Amino acid sequence: MARHFAGGTLVIATHNRGKLAEMEDLLRPYGVKVVSAGALGLPEPEETGTTFEANAELKALAATKASGLPALADDSGLVVPALDGAPGIYSARWAGESKDFGLAMARVEHELKGKRDRRCYFVAVLALAWPDGHIETFRGEVHGSVVFPPRGTRGFGYDPIFLPEGKSETFGELASEERMAVSHRTVAFQQLVEACFRPQRA
After folding, report:
1. Tally of domains in the chain
2. Would you please indicate which residues are annotated as catalytic (active-site) residues?
3. What is the reported pTM?
4. Residue 3 within any structural domain of the chain
C-alpha cells in the first residue's frame, strides 16, 4: 500500500519555474505548503540515471536528504521514436547550459530532416520521497506529433512543437487550463494524489 503524505511542507525538487508553477497549481486543493529546491538553495544533483524513473527518484531522494522534508521530483522529456527515443532523458541537456529550448527544438527539427514519422510523446515521472528513504513513483504519458515551426509562447520546454492527439493547437498555443487537462504531468499527478494525498476538507 502506498504511503500517504501526512501534511506539512513539501519540497518541490526543481529549479524550473514552469514546472514549479504547474506543481503548485496541482497541489493547491490538498492544502500542501510548497517550497522549491531553488528557494532552499539545494544544488541540482547530476542526473546519472538511464530512465525517467531513475532520475526522478535520484532528485527526490537528494532533496529529501538535504532538507529533511518530504520531496517531490519530476523527470520528464520528449520521446521521438524516429530518433530512437531521443531526446528522451536528455531533453533538458539538448537545451544546453543556457537552457535555450529554441536550440533544442531546432536540433529536433534538424535530426528529423528526411524522416516521415513525426510521432512523439511526452513522459513525466513523479517521485515522492521521505527522509527515511521511502519512495513512491508514478508515470504519465501524452501522445502526439512533432510540428515545425514552433507555435505559441505558452508553456515551456518543447511545448511549441508538440501537437497532442485530437488537438489543433500545440502545447505552446493551448491555454494553461486546457494544456494541464491533458498533460503528461497531470496524468502522473492524478496517480500520485490517488495513492498519496487526501483532498483538504472544507
Report:
1. 1
2. 75
3. 0.90
4. no
